[in-house]
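Good morning,

Both structures are done.
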Amino acid sequence: MESSNEMIRRRIATAIPATGKDGWLAILTAATLWGTTGIVFHALGTSDGADAVSISFLRLALSVPFLLAMARFRTGTWLPLLGFRGILVLAGLGLSMAAYQLTYVLAIERVGVAISVLISICGAPVIVALISVLWFREPFHRRTLCAMAFAIIGTILLVGLPSEIHHEAERFWIGIGWSVTCAACYALYILVARAAGDICGPMHAGGIGFAIGALALLPFGASDGVQLTYTLGGWALLIYVAAVPTAIAQTLFLNGIKQTGAVGGSIATLLEPLVSTVLALIVLGERITWYGALGAAILLSGIFIMQGKSEEIACE
């Protein structure tokens, strides 16, 4: 008769995409859902005056019950049995996400959105690739290099650089430092997410990891306090962010990255700024330049190249 632990492992295994195509679909869907958070955060800041630390904390904290409830439904258990290594990996998952959220805010305060996005979002795939090749000895193919170049160049054109920088030199370089740190935290999150797939199911990993991440953010909101007063519409937006682009997207990402690998997954997540841009065009009435449209096409080309089934030739 099948033991309870064996049954849980079997249920977890059935949640993992069976093919590379399924993995790519899961990652791209997760990136699409992440892309909706920008417009939601804009609405929260405009209507409820929410600060970044409070939103980041509530995003992670409110996602925990969703993730653990999904895990209970899927596997039949609320919490998995974890060894010391498992606890360390899931703590790394939550802490890297919390650090990414916090450093992103600190970077934006000093150098603005455009530079912060370019360095943090575009820098992460490069860091992931370097660590994967140098540390984990993973092969790096010409097609992967080409896809990364296309995706990063496309993102740069899409986001664009500010025409003028009004910050003081010291403040600017501190902001650049926070942006690089943000990229490193995002890269660490992607690498730890890949490792978390060997520890437990994605819903358990997200629930435990994000609970740790939320607790880590609490001290940063201690001075002004975590804002808990929102309109009914504000709470609805927060619950949406916690349930959909956090809980569901996290599950999809952890499922998909087992098939795409850390490098491929990091490149695919560059779809996020494209989705944010499209939503800004539709909802906020913002305009896109011709080079922004060109960048979107190049970015999509890079993602398509990465998914292509042509023969890979390793770089020498």
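Second structure follows.
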Amino acid sequence: MKSELFYFDGDYAKPLVIFIHGMGMDAAMWAEPVSARVLGGKYPLSILLGDAEKKTLFHDLRDQGFPVLAWSQMRPAGPALIAVEELKELVMAYSAKAPAGIVLIGHSRGGLIARRFLQECITPIRGVITIATPHKGSSMAKWVVSLSPFSAAVKKIMDLGDKEVRTSLHRVISFLSGHEIREMLPGSAFLTGLSERRQPGFFIASIGGTDPALVKIGATPLPNLLAALFSDRMIPDEMREGKADGFVTAESAVYPGGDEHRDFHVHHAGLIFDRGVREYVMKRVLSLTD
């Protein structure tokens, strides 16, 4: 995946907002969603969002005169610490354009990258907002491994869709089976190494989702199919209606020691684009300029 950076100048009396994308995604997810690729750059965003509105906080804040920046991580499915180093370099390069400080907004693993960055950061940070971030980890990688004895049932699910759907679902399973995503497992060395310490004087908020219908087979949400094929104990919390967004539970999405948390009935990818989420975050960011 190529490295790509989107930057729009704005009013220097307002903080610079830096957007951090999740694992296997890119900066276009924030800045140019119609061209965004997911799952390691293999598929268009439409496989997760369909025809949903493709506008994000990047556009909202840019239109309000905020300086905004989003970049594509060089290794979007690689170790998180690589992305942390990239964020450090960007903050150093753009600090002169941020006399009013910096706000970090991270989606999914992007929120963890922000947290790790804060442990070493000396740049004035005004606020941090994480969206669908697995602060306590996600068990999805472990769950995919546990499915191997039930390969016939998994094949049955895949056969329900057309070729494109089957290919997409196969890619999702391969993505969740990858070595790098194991950093997101509860109790991983990366997660346990994150500090809950915070700098004084900046605002922290987190957002979680409670609609697990991230992936659909035709018109049927994957959690519904799993419920029909497996016993209840085989369904991970990340796939349970009202409890998770299809990858991260609402409980795991709570930033430890944060100032506030809100849940929205939206799935993992949709939280970036949901109007209610955007309005909530806009109010919080605007309040930092008062």
